[in-house]
């Protein structure tokens, strides 16, 4: 005979585990319906704790809908008690990557000092904030930096990215342009498939702003972070 305590708790656990497949089925149903209606590929559907809404994540974006797909909400969901952005919190989780999964062979690699700390950036050569970030990163030591050329600001960005990627010394060409405004020379007629793959990876990962940084724990940050913030984050991961 089962222990009385187990008899009391068994119905609760049974109901809990029976509810799991039903929830997963509903999320899968919504996923397929949204994909069909919007002609997109949905990465995940997750029920939120707000107004019966479901979070739909695709192409680095979040939409919200109900179980009947009767409406879509495209915007910032804020918790009424904490007044904190639920959307921003979820994006931090959903856009995190495994650093080891980054296609670093498609990046310009710079090693300084012992190179133990690692950082990856997605940057456009015509991005003013990227140039400011470059001045901050120039003061970093004991670091390996992977710079992904990510030309999204116009045709000239692609031209300069091609010239930098095709340079004999990519790191020097990048630094000369970003720090000193010395235009990269050359025809840029080498194999630039890495740049195409960078753009595809960025679209898939929802990288819509430059610069975008990835730390070794997979956390991303956007904008020209000050050196002190970068150092603090990197040192916390050692």
Strand order of the largest sheet: 5-7-6-8-9
Q: Main β-sheet: number of strands, strand sense, barrel status?
A: 5 strands, mixed
Strand content: 15-25%
Poorly predicted ranges (pLDDT <50, ≥5 residues)? none
Q: What is the number of helices?
A: 7
Distance between the termini: 54 Å
- The geometry reads as globular
Architecture (CATH level 2) name of the largest domain: 3-Layer(aba) Sandwich
The CATH superfamily label of the largest domain reads Glutaredoxin
CATH class of the largest domain: Alpha Beta
Count of distinct structural domains: 2
Number of strands: 9
Average pLDDT rating? 90
Q: Do you know the CATH topology of the largest domain?
A: Glutaredoxin
Oligomeric status of the shown chains? Answer: single chain
Radius of gyration: 23 Å
Helix content: 40-55%
Q: Which features does this protein show?
A:
238 residues, alpha+beta, 2 domains, 5-stranded mixed beta sheet, 4-stranded antiparallel beta sheet, 7 helices
Structural overview:
The chain has 238 residues and is an alpha+beta fold. The chain folds into 2 domains: 4-94, Roll (Nuclear Transport Factor 2, Chain: A), CATH 3.10.450.70; 103-236, 3-Layer(aba) Sandwich (Glutaredoxin). 41% of the residues lie in helices and 18% in strands. A hairpin with a 2-residue loop joins strand 2 (54-58) and strand 3.
């Amino acid at each position: 005979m089962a222990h009385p305590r187990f008899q009391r708790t068994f119905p609760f656990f049974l109901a809990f585990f029976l509810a799991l497949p039903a929830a997963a089925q509903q999320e899968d149903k919504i996923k397929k319906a949204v994909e069909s209606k919007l002609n997109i590929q949905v990465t995940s559907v997750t029920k939120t704790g707000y107004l019966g809404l479901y979070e739909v994540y695709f192409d680095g974006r979040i939409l919200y809908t109900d179980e009947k797909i009767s409406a879509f909400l495209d915007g910032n969901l804020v918790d009424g008690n904490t007044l904190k952005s639920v959307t921003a919190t979820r994006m931090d989780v959903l856009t995190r990557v495994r650093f080891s999964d980054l296609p670093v062979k498609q990046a310009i690699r710079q090693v300084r000092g012992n190179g133990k700390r690692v950082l990856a950036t997605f940057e456009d050569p015509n991005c003013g904030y990227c140039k400011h970030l470059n001045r901050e990163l120039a003061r970093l030591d004991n670091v390996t930096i992977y710079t992904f050329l990510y030309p999204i600001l116009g045709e000239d960005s692609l031209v300069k990215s091609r010239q930098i990627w095709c340079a004999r010394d990519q790191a020097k060409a990048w630094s000369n342009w970003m720090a000193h405004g010395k235009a990269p020379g050359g025809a840029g007629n080498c194999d630039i498939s890495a740049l195409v793959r960078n753009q595809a990876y960025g679209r898939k990962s929802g990288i819509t702003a430059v610069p975008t940084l990835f730390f070794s724990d997979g956390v991303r940050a956007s904008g020209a972070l000050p050196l002190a913030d970068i150092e603090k984050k990197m040192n916390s991961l050692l």
